[in-house]
Amino acid sequence: MSTLDAARTELALAVLYLNKAEARDKICRAIQYGSKFLSNGQPGTAQNVDKSTSLARKVFRLFKFVNDLHGLISPTPQGTPLPFVLLGKSKNALLSTFLFLDQIVWLGRTGIYENKERTELIGRISLFCWLGASTCTTLVEIGEIGRLSSSMKKLEKDLKNTNKYKNEQYRMKLQKSNDRTIALVKASMDIVVAVGLLQLAPKKVTPRVTGAFGFVSSLISCYQVCTNSYFHI
Description:
By secondary structure, the protein is an all-alpha fold. It has helices at residues 3-18, 21-39, 45-60, 65-73, 82-109, 116-158, 168-198, 207-230.
């Protein structure tokens, strides 16, 4: 493959990635929390970028609550332990509620819905829903990583005299474990971000801490969207 062909391929992948609303939302999220980190809650250009980007992101999430609503009513894979099922469905319900309420917040911030006090209240309720959803995700990922670890150890015993990394089943489980570990890190960081946005621990989780955790979790989200885009062409 020539240099020009390689460049065309890479550009095509970039176009494919940027055509996704989810990818643009996560890039804007990185800008938003990066600006929050720089501003540290102080008035100025960085804070203006934080606020304007936050409002712009809400447009990308219009009707996105339908995705988790669908996940809520969809059947779970057979063999999934009941606690994981309940946590997963709770996450879907909370995230769907967060995204639905976030649309009302967008209406309030744009001036279409003129009750500012109720808009702020709905905004806080939506953030608590996101906090709950992130907590459920964290617990599910911890449990699923534990299950994968147990099944991998059993498989290692069966592959005692062979190279386990050449076994397709083992490689798939390892990849799933890595993906869930990344998801666990992101969900854990999102809990900190939600605590910061709600100002539940203002002395410890300052705007700068919130911005730092939000920026890193945004980069993880960009990576997750990237892998889903590039490897499923």
